[in-house]
Amino acid sequence: MSNETAPDATVSAASWGLRESATFDRPTIAAIQKAADTGIYDIRGWGAKRPLPHFDDLLFLGASMSRYPLEGYRERCGTDVVLGDRFAKYPLHLATPVTIAGMSFGALSGRAKEALGRGASEVGTSTTTGDGGMTPEERGQSKHLVYQYLPSRYGMNPDDLRKADAIEIVLGQGAKPGGGGMLLGQKISERVAGMRTLPQGIDQRSASRHPDWTGPDDLAIKIAELREITDWEKPVYVKVGATRTYYDVKLACHSGADVVVVDGMQGGTAATQDVFIEHVGIPTLAAIPQAVQALQELGLHRKVQLIVSGGIRNGADVAKAMALGADAVAIGSAALIALGDNDPRYAAEYEAIGSAAGFYDDFQDGRDPAGITTQDPELAQRFDPVEGGRRLANFLRVMTMEAQTIARACGKAHLQHLEPEDLVAISIEASAMARVPLAGTDWIPGRTGGL
Amino acid sequence: MTTPDVTFDLSTTPLRAVNEALHAPGLTGEFAIEHPAGGHSVAVGLDAPIKVDVHGHVGYYAAGMNQQAEVEIHGNAGTGVAENMMSGTVVVHGNASQSAGATAHGGLLVVEGDAAARCGISMKGADIVVGGDVGHSSAFMAQAGRLVVRGDAGEGLGDSIYETRIYVRGRVASLGADCVAKEMRAEHREELAGLLKAAGYTDDDLDSYTRYGSARSLYHFTAENKY
After folding, report:
1. In sequence order, what are the beta bridge partners of A120?
2. Chain A residues with CB inside 8 Å of B106's CB?
3. DSSP strand E in A321-382: where?
4. Using an 8 Å Cβ cutoff, are A396 and A119 in contact?
5. Which residues have C-beta within 8 Å of that of residue A279, sequence separation ≥ 6?
6. What is the pLDDT of residues B143-158, one digit of tens each?
7. Is the Cβ–Cβ distance between B212 and B166 less than 8 Å?
């Protein structure tokens, strides 16, 4: 962060009658200046920062007369979810529908991965490996571990495939649908390099598509192969970045997916081009109804489970995603914050590396003062995986309880009983995307002509 | 060829039953699979020191993720034969379709005929010996291991290659980004001779081969990377 945005400068400029351009605002000017200085585009993590229609644009219709609420904390509201019971011998049965999204060892430290496992297991939910393979820390701590099968196939081996509780075939990521990965050399320690079969210290490129199949028909054969290798025991997820979600979900189901994961453009990333993060994909809110429509038309809604990710932050987001038709959600950035990422206690150190607590997004640099998105042994050592796990478990409990509170207010005895009828929108954009009426009307833009 | 201990007939036995039998704990011995009829996922996920002879053509991913086993395919193989192999041997006594040996970490894949596009794509440590030609984009993003081509190679050989070494006897239509011809030193001649011998080729003139590998100019991203 530069000091150009200091409040006194803003006040002075305004008092002089200067007017800031909405088109060339200060971040845009700074980006142009940086590109002109360096000749390289900005790479960062953290996901989209631009304002987008999101769950905050939806509200719940709590019960009054026409619906009957449940008593808070006394009447049961179930939270468990079964994932992958379409074909797999051993589907996952999670105590809460809030799962941990794929984040790689490499992008994260081993201790951070361990903490994710500790926190998730404490509340009975799953973690997901990420690009770079399975670490003993994560397998050891995660009661339910989803093993990602990625285009790079870094660290991919059948032994780990058999150790997993589910397999997630990754076709895309919300922050960069259609894009590959780039783990910069400064994060490639000896261990990370060894797991990825590459020399230490070089930039590691991940392919944008799978090397041995080229379309949905091939994906069906690939899924069958993975099932054969693992004796049809494990659920197979298919993860897509939200773009042409309706068609992608249909094709994933036709290919035999047990679970479809849809990651909206608010989803995070360890590192990719800023221009990609901000300009490719569709918002999570827009993706969910498309996915649900596809599942419903196939007669597979609730049979092929839908996991939604991309900017999930609290229990209200969980409840809203589920009311729109999701079976579960996955969190990434929120989980990192819960662990202690961007913690104000490291404010001075964030500033020393040109950032600030709450703004740090240069995960590719590997200099994370919180010791979470780094491979630097000294920085990583700062992070306590037991304490991090405790914090994450607390956060997951809070999210789950918040969602339950809302569900009870809507008269629901289980989170999965939430439905679109429980929601209204407070903006026309959100109403059109989420396909719920604008508050106080029965109007859904593009769908109904009423009021 | 010795008499197998067990023969499976895929025209009468479901694939699931065959693969399940081949996954049995502590398995040893020799097995034959007849009438594969181009079926997919034949003999995948093996993890035992067994021998499996497949008599006929196979579809996608035959012997995928093989560990320890010695698999011979007496016919042609479809896409992704021996994909992500970890160890053992897979021999195709015919041609292979695209992505043969994709992402394979170890073991030896021999294709006696031709292999199509993207042979050895993203390979991570296996050895692949192709008796005939390979198609375009072979060894694309190949990270480790060795690829030997006794015939010609198609366009874009070794594009974005990392540390894999490629030996080609015939013509190369074109090299991919960051792939260059390199000197054949004594250790490379020795390595090539060993690979050819392991694949059953002992009469090749080593001087007729050219070694290719990474110029390593893409190892660090800069604005000067032109690809």
Report:
1. none
2. none
3. 328-331
4. yes
5. none
6. 999 999 999 999 999 9
7. yes
Q: Look up residue B150 and give its amino acid.
A: R
Report, as ranges of residue numbers, the positions in chain B whose pLDDT lies below 70.
1, 223-227
Q: What is the C-alpha to C-alpha distance for residues B190 and B197, in angstroms, rounded to an integer?
A: 11
pLDDT in tens, A143-199: 999 999 999 999 999 999 999 999 999 999 999 999 887 777 777 888 888 888 988
Q: What is the pTM of this model?
A: 0.95
Distances (CA, A) of B71 to A98, B83, B85, B90, B130: 44, 13, 11, 5, 16
CA distance A98 to chain B (A): 32
Nearest residue on chain B to A219, alpha-carbon basis: B60
d(CA A246, CA A297): 10
Residue B7, burial from CB neighbour count under 10 angstroms (0-12, 13-18, 19+): middle
pLDDT at A42 (0 to 100): 87
Q: How far apart are CA A63 and CA A43, in angstroms?
A: 46
A35 touches chain B (CB under 8 A): no
**ipTM score here?**
0.96
Q: CA-to-CA distance for A239 and A237, rounded, in angstroms?
A: 6
- Name the residue with tokens 């990754």: A170
Residues composing chain A: 451
Distance, in Å, from the CA atom of A335 to the CA atom of B223, rounded to the nearest integer, reads 34
Q: Left, alpha or beta for A125 (phi > 0: left; psi -120 to 50: alpha)?
A: beta
Q: B141: how many CB neighbours lie within 10 A of its CB?
A: 26
Compute CA distances B220 → A203, B157, B180, whole Å.
5, 21, 17
Residue A35 backbone zone (phi > 0: left; psi -120 to 50: alpha; other: beta): alpha
What are the phi and psi torsion angles at B18 (to 5°)? -70, -50
Question: Is A424 within 8 Å of A436 (Cβ atoms)?
Answer: yes
Question: Does the beta-carbon distance from A225 to B103 stay under 8 Å?
Answer: no
Q: Cα–Cα distance between B128 and B140 in angstroms, integer? A: 14
A61 to chain B nearest CA, in Å?
Answer: 50
pLDDT score recorded for residue B121: 98
Q: Which stretches of chain A drop beneath a pLDDT of 70?
A: 1-11, 450-451
